[in-house]
Amino acid sequence: MPHKLVPQPKLIFEKSSPGRVGCNLPVADTPEVDLKKALGPTRQSLHLPEVSELELIRHFTNLSHINYGIETGFYPLGSCTMKYNPKINERTAMIPGFTHIHPMQPADTVPGALEVLAQVQEFLCEICGFDSICLQPLAGAHGELTCLMLIRAYHESRGEGATRRVVLAPDSAHGTNPASAAMVGYTVKTIPTDASGGCDMAALTTALDETVAAFMVTNPSTLGLFETQIEEICRLVHEAGGQVFCDGANMNAMVGTTRPGDHGFDCMHLNLHKTFSTPHGGGGPGCGAIGLKAHLEPFQPVPVVIRNKEGKVELDDRRPHSIGRVSAYFGQFLMEVRALTYLSAYGKERMADISRHAVLNANYVKARLKDVLPAAHDRPCMHECVLTAQEYKKGGVRALDISKRLIDYGFHPPTNYFPLIVPEAIMIEPTETECKETLDAFCDALIAICEEARTNPDLLHDAPTTQIVGRLDEASAVKNLDVRWRAPQKVGV
Amino acid sequence: MNVPTDLKYTKSHEWVRIEGDVATIGITDHAQSELGDVVFLDLPEVGRALQQEETFGSVESVKTVSDLYAPIAGEVIETNAALSGQSELVNTDPYQGGWIVKLRIADPAQAEGLLSPEDYQGVIG
Question: Which of A21, A170, A186, A342 has the fewest C-beta atoms under 10 angstroms from its C-beta?
């Protein structure tokens, strides 16, 4: 049940007491300099907090307790694959042989690091069904951008760079898809979704002509549905001379079970920080590795990490048609160490457990919630389910209210209002790492909240009431962003 | 949902008030309700000539960014200056204080093709 509101913590600046220090230095045996004289009023004007070591430790420990993450609770943020990252990943990433090397060391002094890169590439090639993997891109959207740059280079090499100026994307696409296409200079055209949640094939056929450079397809789609027409889509796009890019944000639904390369895709991006258990966002830099078929290999970023005939890993710079580097060195190397640890721990035999359990968990949640929050499309979902809270709208309750109320029940809210084509969308991705008891507790909470929506909607409008802050004013937060602490003005100064 | 009877509408959820050769344009109550709190509007330059259905700006809410389409062709003669500081007018007063742009109508016949209040009510269900 909901707990009561906890007090708002003070900022470290507000705990400051003039002259208090965190440690006492020994008496100096060198000539002393008066800091005030040496630095002028700089230190005072900075208003640095003056606290004891214990105050400092308590401050940050208490802040960490208010934080919410996968290690404190269920985090069903759709389209983000917030799976648990096993701790052994961190152990291997801290091995001094990996942390104490420099990217500018001669390649023959770091055979172990090169072996990591090669093995990750080989794993991912086999899992996704591509001929090459490039680990340089630093995030998912960076991977999309790199793929589109490869596609542009490919069309230019065939003399079609000037004519193929259009990129197609479904109306359910991640916002990064049209953004990446625009960054590469393409014009974006939207392909509608049909009533069953798949690609509208008639609209696609109409849109395909000699101006189309690529179709960007997310599979499974952002509706959490497998695009069953994918082979036909790839055939049609290829027939029109275009390339097909797979947005791999939802690869967790397919790992070990089916391969985008086999579906006909020419290239794809992967989010190692989603699918292959490396830290997300602020927890660690991302890795938006890309997979590509052989016809795009001449253009791939250099240096290319290859294994020669003797089995030795080498760096290959001899790519005259390469689009060049897309990041410094080899991407986020320690993320690749973590991903290799994860891949090795699963092994080929158990790899399919990832997608099977992810899909099973999402379908379980969808089935348990069907009477209170029906799915937008009534067919088996993949690793996430997109539900609609539309029936509560007439009673004044929106998807956002339901999500905010979930915070009071101790859960991180799911994704809301995405994909845009589903009214009052609630997008739940449980991932494979959650047990049935957790899924049941989450579903029980949502069922109770939907009952509250009918009987006492204000409970939802006021939510959350158990956190250090209540409902945030998101519009003001955007318009009048103010995240800076200012020293209180002293009276009479 | 409020659909005033003295206005014309588009399928893309703009409303149009026609007074002489001037068309005042905004987004409907339904549109603002679906968008959520509006935080920013990207508005066209005065003097710009717009074709019918041309994108002339965008409206950004806490949920999404959505394009604005010209219901009829015309030249931009004024944009709502109040919206730069008070974008919430689009939510709180979509048909009056939250108007977005005024056009000098190029072809009055195009107004005939716009949706009636009854037709628009049918679009939003």
Answer: A21
B38–A contact, CB cutoff 8 A: yes
Rounded Cα gap, residues A130 and A249, in angstroms: 16
Separation in Å, CA of A372 to nearest CA in chain B: 21
pLDDT in tens, A97-153: 999 999 999 999 999 999 999 999 999 999 999 999 999 999 999 999 999 999 999
| Range(s) of the domain holding residue A126 | 88-350
Q: Does B39 touch chain A (CB under 8 A)?
A: yes
Testing the interface with B: which of A476, A479, A481 to mutate, by most B Cβ within 10 A?
A479
The pTM of the full predicted model, rounded to 2 decimals, is 0.90
Question: With contacts defined as CB-CB under 8 Å, which chain A residues touch B32?
Answer: none
Spell out the residues 6+ positions from residue A148 whose beta carbon is closer than 8 angstroms to its own: A167, A180, A181, A183, A184, A186, A214, A245
The amino acid that residue A167 corresponds to is V
In this structure, the answer to whether residues A107 and A130 fall within a common structural domain is: yes
Per the structure, the count of domains in chain A is: 2
DSSP state of A482: -
Q: B37 and A420 in contact by Cβ < 8 A? A: no
Token pair 């009214």: residue = A423
CB A234 within 8 A of CB A262: no
